[in-house]
Amino acid sequence: MEKLVSSPAAVAAFGALAADTADAGVTVGKMFGATSLMVGTKAVGCLHGDGVAFKLGRDSTGHAAALALPGAALFDPSGMGRPFKDWVLVPLASADQWVVLVEAALAARPSP
User: Fold this and answer.
1) What whole-number distance in Å separates Cα of residue 69 and Cα of residue 88?
2) d(CA 111, CA 11)
3) Has residue 57 been placed in a domain?
4) Close Cβ partners of 44 (under 8 Å, ≥ 6 residues apart)
5) What is the 3-state secondary structure (H, E, C) of 3-24?
6) In which residue ranges of the chain is pLDDT below 50?
7) Count of domains for the chain
8) Domain hosting residue 31, numbered range
9) At what angle do helices 8-21 and 98-108 cross, to 10 degrees?
């Protein structure tokens, strides 16, 4: 499996997303070998190629809304047809929705 390389535009948009969500307790870390948005030790999103995958919970309204965006799909990091059902990959073209999706991912997290 070859590693996806993110474009400078995607990296910049992801950096802006991290900055915009820092007040909500989101930090940047590594998960799945990818630059990720973390809350504590749990990932709520990760940069993947020219998109961001968000952990939204398969039955949530955020999940349905994310899948409705143009080019969005279930996140399949292996590329082998085994998608993570709780995760949605949203392309750079919908970067204006990324902050809303981080908020939905935070809302979908189980209570401690």
Assistant:
1) 10
2) 31
3) yes
4) 26, 37, 38, 54, 55, 102, 105, 106, 109
5) CCCCCHHHHHHHHHHHHHHHHH
6) 1
7) 1
8) 8-108
9) 50
Rounded CA gap, 75 and 48, in Å?
A: 9
What distance in Å separates the CA atoms of residue 53 and residue 66, rounded to the nearest whole number? 10
3-state SS, residue 76: coil
pTM: 0.93
Residue closest to 44 by CA, chosen among 96, 6, 2, 60: 60
Residue 1 belongs to a domain: no
Token code pair at residue 103: 């908020």
Please state, as a whole number, how many other Cβ atoms lie within 10 Å of the Cβ of residue 106.
19
Residue 3 lies in a domain: no
Six-digit token string for 16: 């802006």
- Token pair listed for 54: 């968000």
Would 54 be classed as within a structural domain? yes
Q: What is the pLDDT of residue 1?
A: 43
* The pLDDT of residue 98: 97
